[in-house]
Recover the amino acids of this structure.
């Protein structure tokens, strides 16, 4: 219980708001907030659907409260779980594992969904809240990993990004889903963003980062810097530059788009085969 007391300790809360004010003054903070909101929009469409399905059996006057309370509890728990994952990523090689998991999550984002949600409808307000919270916990592991990676250990980013994006998803789920259906390029762009973040996460792992700099501080880095100089681009690899991180981020995008495209083709091919089999088995009229 000591950790719970520390969270609500006035000194901890004061330090949080002080960090919040300092980080808000940086443009990179708002760029990262945009990343977190985008990730949540892409990965949380099913969660919004669960909220709607769980609350559909409530009386009209309880329906709104069920959605608000369920989403609010889900946000608080998601912030807690994401904070735990973000703190664990400070350990060696856990960022590597998280980055690889994020690549798989991003690639699966490009695979069309075939299965439908099966969520029971609640008849009581608190029963609906419980269904929403439990479903959100079960369904949000990919979301937690992605947001923790995008926040890069910043608690204010976690709180603000999740507090903005989850209510946005609940309020505008139908509009968001229609927008993503009409503009599939947004899904591909989101998958590419997750691939970039995954590459950055892997490159910044405490166990991987020294090996990367050792690799690129030698002749390989010098060769790459010479190639960049031909295009009047400053040195990126020598003397501990950020070139290795950028290279891993680009490689993450490539892996996500290639693997996602392969999985997408296989899924569409399987769906076409199943449809043709059902058509053959269907009795002729």
């Amino acid at each position: 219980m000591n950790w719970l007391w520390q969270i609500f300790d006035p000194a901890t809360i004061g330090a949080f708001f002080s960090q919040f004010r300092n980080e808000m003054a940086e443009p990179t903070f708002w760029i990262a907030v945009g990343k977190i909101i985008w990730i949540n929009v892409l990965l949380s469409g099913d969660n919004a659907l669960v909220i709607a399905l769980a609350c559909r059996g409530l009386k009209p006057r309880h329906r709104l409260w069920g959605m608000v309370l369920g989403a609010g509890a889900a946000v608080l728990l998601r912030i807690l779980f994401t904070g735990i994952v973000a703190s664990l990523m400070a350990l060696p090689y856990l960022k590597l594992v998280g980055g690889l998991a994020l690549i798989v999550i991003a690639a699966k984002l490009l695979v069309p969904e075939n299965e439908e949600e099966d969520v029971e409808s609640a008849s009581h307000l608190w029963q609906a809240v419980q269904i929403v919270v439990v479903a959100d916990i079960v369904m949000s592991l990919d979301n937690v990993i992605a947001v923790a990676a995008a926040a890069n250990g910043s608690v204010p980013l976690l709180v603000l990004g999740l507090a903005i994006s989850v209510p946005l998803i609940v309020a505008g789920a139908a509009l968001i889903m229609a927008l993503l259906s009409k503009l599939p390029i947004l899904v591909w762009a989101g998958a590419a963003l997750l691939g970039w973040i995954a590459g950055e996460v892997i490159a910044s792992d405490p166990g991987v980062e020294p090996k990367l700099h050792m690799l690129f501080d030698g002749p390989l880095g010098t060769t790459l810097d010479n190639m960049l100089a031909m295009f009047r681009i400053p040195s990126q690899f020598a003397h501990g530059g950020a070139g290795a991180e950028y290279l891993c981020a680009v490689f993450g995008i490539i892996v996500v788009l290639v693997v996602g495209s392969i999985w997408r083709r296989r899924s569409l091919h399987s769906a076409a085969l199943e449809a043709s089999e059902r058509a053959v088995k269907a009795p002729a009229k």
The chain has a mean pLDDT of 75. The two ends are 68 Å apart (CA to CA).
